[in-house]
């Protein structure tokens, strides 16, 4: 009998072990399906204001995500005390299935003991309910109290005996750079974004913006204690706006905002040593002409255009010009053209940002100047010079003999004798005069571009 009893006991023990292992696996599976404790997303109320005696507070509510797996059988709405770790249930829904997708459900009336007014009168017997309160919609599995707490939230503001969904607090971003301006391309620049109020948390995204071209992202950083720092060596040469966009971690509490540095200029190389050829003055005593410092032009792909670039009819460019009065109206005109162009407008810092200019289809070949002039007496003006079509060929001197056609000789330096009608000296003087005239026209044009007129 003893042996038989032992033989029957072994299968029984194996069966018990299998059952225990299966139960453990089920518990672990349920735990793995649940999310970590905390906020799952935003709670949206169909009613955005009302009385503290409303029952229900809002007849319908929705969320932007689902409850965690195995944690969507019951929804419970709580109001949280503004200063103490207290909360009070003011609603409940038991339909279930809220882990299958974002919540979109009616909230039935609760018993009087579960209303917002009941919570407030219990917390503040003196009747002063004014303040901002958090509402939490909890995802509940009533059969497993060990699951982490997961919920959706929004804030309401109570004034007297009325409530309203609280608007997010405004924020601001102040962006600074080191060096402040004119770094050499390829060097590291440190940007610091200060976010106000300092309690706002979230993320800063830094971008470089050039006219109408797509922004180029430079990096991201987390905001901590009201500040975020981003270091980058990816800035390319030219003038650009550096923009910092703040994305709040809790958009119900804090609003998004941005700040920027306008006209941040990256140099291709460092300062030219004194005495070098590129730093020597022109014959007139002024530096070699370059694109004016208050002008930047980029093509449709955001590539900077240099001095007097060749353009084609119908080509689009974006122009950034500086030096105007704040919010000034800027008139735009094209030399040798009667076409009307839309006015530009300077911003608060006197900058025309990314003015879109399209080369007219019927433009003639040759040199052109687009002028952006402030619509005021003596107002600031910036000129953009460009060319279209084939460039004019350079004049070439015609060969001449050392003697005149009648045999008389001439001397280019002294004028020769008068016996020759077409001596070499006169021919050389004619060519030199033409070359000098051409050079003078080009010098005048170049000087006008460099001076921004």
- Report the structural category: alpha+beta
Q: SSE order in H/E notation?
A: HEEEEEEHEEEEEEEEEEEEEEEEEEH
Helix content: 10-25%
Number of helices: 3
What general outline do the C-alpha atoms trace?
A: elongated
Could you describe the 3D structure shown?
The protein contains three helices and 24 strands. By secondary structure, the protein is of the alpha+beta class. The longest helix is centred in the N-terminal third of the chain and has 32 residues. The radius of gyration is 39 Å and the shape is elongated. The protein starts with a helix and ends with a helix. The N terminus and C terminus are likely disordered.
């Amino acid at each position: 009998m003893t042996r038989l009893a032992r033989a029957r006991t072994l299968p029984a023990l194996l069966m018990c072990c299998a059952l225990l292992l299966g139960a453990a696996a089920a518990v672990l599976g349920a735990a793995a399906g649940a999310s970590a404790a905390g906020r799952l997303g935003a709670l949206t109320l169909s009613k955005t204001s009302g009385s503290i005696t409303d029952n229900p507070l809002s007849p319908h509510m929705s969320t932007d995500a689902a409850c965690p797996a195995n944690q969507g059988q019951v929804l419970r709405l709580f109001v949280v005390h503004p200063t103490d770790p207290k909360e009070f249930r003011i609603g409940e829904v038991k339909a279930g299935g809220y882990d299958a997708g974002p919540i979109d459900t009616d909230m039935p009336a609760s018993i009087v003991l579960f209303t917002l007014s009941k919570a407030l009168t219990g917390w503040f017997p003196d009747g002063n309910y004014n303040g901002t309160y958090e509402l939490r919609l909890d995802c509940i599995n009533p059969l497993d109290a060990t699951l982490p707490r997961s919920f959706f939230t929004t804030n309401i503001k109570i004034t007297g005996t009325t409530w309203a969904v609280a608007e997010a607090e405004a924020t601001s971003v102040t962006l600074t750079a080191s060096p402040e301006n004119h770094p050499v391309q390829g060097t590291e620049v440190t940007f610091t974004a200060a976010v106000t109020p300092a309690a706002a948390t979230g993320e800063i995204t830094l971008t470089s913006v050039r006219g109408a071209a797509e922004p180029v992202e430079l990096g991201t950083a987390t905001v901590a204690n009201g500040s975020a720092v981003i270091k980058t060596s990816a800035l390319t040469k030219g003038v650009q706006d550096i923009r910092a966009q703040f994305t709040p971690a809790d958009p119900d509490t804090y609003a998004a905002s941005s700040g920027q540095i306008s006209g941040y200029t990256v140099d291709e190389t460092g300062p030219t040593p004194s005495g070098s050829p590129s730093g020597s003055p022109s014959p007139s005593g002024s530096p070699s002409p370059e694109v004016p410092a208050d002008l930047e032009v980029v093509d449709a792909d955001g590539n900077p255009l240099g001095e007097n670039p060749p353009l084609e009819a119908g080509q689009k460019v974006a122009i950034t010009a500086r030096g105007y009065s704040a919010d000034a109206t800027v008139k735009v005109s094209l030399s040798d053209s009667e076409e009307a162009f839309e006015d530009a407008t300077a911003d608060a810092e006197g900058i025309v940002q990314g003015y879109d200019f399209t080369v007219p289809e019927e433009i003639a070949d040759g040199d052109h100047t687009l002028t952006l002039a402030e619509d005021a007496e003596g107002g600031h003006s910036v000129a953009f010079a460009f060319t279209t079509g084939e460039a004019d060929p350079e004049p070439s001197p015609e060969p001449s003999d050392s003697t005149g056609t009648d045999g008389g000789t001439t001397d280019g330096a002294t004028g020769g004798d008068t016996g020759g009608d077409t001596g070499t000296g006169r021919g050389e003087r004619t060519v030199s005069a033409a070359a000098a005239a051409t050079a003078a026209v080009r010098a005048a044009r170049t000087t006008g571009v460099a001076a921004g007129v």
